């Protein structure tokens, strides 16, 4: 494999800072801050703002940050999964189709969390049990998705022989 095929700058600084900042918001809100505290709310709003910025960046950002670069069409997902099961995994410098589905699931869940969290601060929905329960279920779902995301990065990194975790820190995807 030539050197140019072994490594490529993929994740720009915005994507990397977004990723780590969103992770910090989620971890702090789940494990360090009590529900309902002002800090909990501001971390939630910060996460929502980060997702909003990431959505904009998904249309105007660098090549691999753009949604068009990794749109998970049914055909792409099927081809990717088939190749995995055939033992011939495809290589994607950006997100693979399953990773793209995860990106959209995570972004959507954070938006839903932000919405249900905000609703709980309004007169109409303050203290409404189903909103609180939905918010809690979404928070738990986000943790499961994030755990699956991290585990998948480790597994897919081995399958694809790519240093995926390191790439989110350095911005460069390396194949070995």
Strand content: under 5%
Report, as a whole number of angstroms, the end-to-end distance: 9 Å
Structural class: mainly alpha
The average pLDDT value, as a whole number, equals 95
Share in helix? over 70%
Radius of gyration using CA atoms only: 18 Å
Give the CA-based shape: elongated
Strand order of the largest sheet: 1-2
Main sheet makeup = 2 strands, antiparallel
Low-confidence stretches: none
Compute the number of strand runs: 2
If helices are DSSP runs of H or I spanning 4 or more residues, what is the number of helices?
A: 8
Entry keywords:
176 residues, two-stranded antiparallel ribbon, elongated
How would you explain this protein's 3D organization?
With 176 residues, the chain is mainly alpha-helical. Helix content is 70%, strand content 3%. It has a two-stranded antiparallel sheet. Helix 2 runs antiparallel to helix 3 (38-60), helix 3 runs antiparallel to helix 6 (97-119) and helix 6 runs antiparallel to helix 7. The N and C termini lie close together (9 Å).
Structure summary:
The protein is mainly α and 176 residues long.
Question: Layout of helices and strands, plus pairs?
Answer:
Elements: H1 3-6, E1 7-9, H2 13-31, H3 38-60, H4 67-70, H5 74-85, H6 97-119, H7 129-160, H8 164-170, E2 172-174
Antiparallel strand pairs: 1-2
């Amino acid at each position: 494999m030539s050197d140019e095929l072994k490594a490529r700058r993929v994740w720009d600084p915005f994507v990397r800072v977004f990723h780590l900042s969103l992770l910090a918001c989620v971890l702090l809100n789940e494990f360090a801050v009590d529900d309902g505290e002002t800090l909990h709310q501001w971390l939630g709003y910060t996460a929502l703002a980060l997702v909003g910025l990431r959505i904009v960046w998904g249309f105007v950002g660098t090549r691999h940050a753009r949604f068009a670069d990794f749109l998970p069409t049914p055909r792409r997902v099927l081809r990717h999964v088939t190749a995995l099961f055939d033992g011939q995994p495809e290589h994607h410098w950006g997100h693979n189709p399953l990773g793209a589905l995860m990106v959209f699931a995570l972004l959507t869940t954070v938006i839903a969390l932000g919405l249900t969290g905000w609703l709980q601060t309004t007169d109409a929905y303050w203290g409404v049990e189903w909103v609180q329960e939905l918010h809690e279920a979404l928070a738990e779902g986000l943790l499961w998705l994030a755990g699956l995301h991290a585990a998948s990065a480790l597994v897919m990194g081995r399958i694809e022989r790519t240093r995926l975790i390191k790439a989110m820190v350095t911005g460069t995807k390396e194949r070995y």
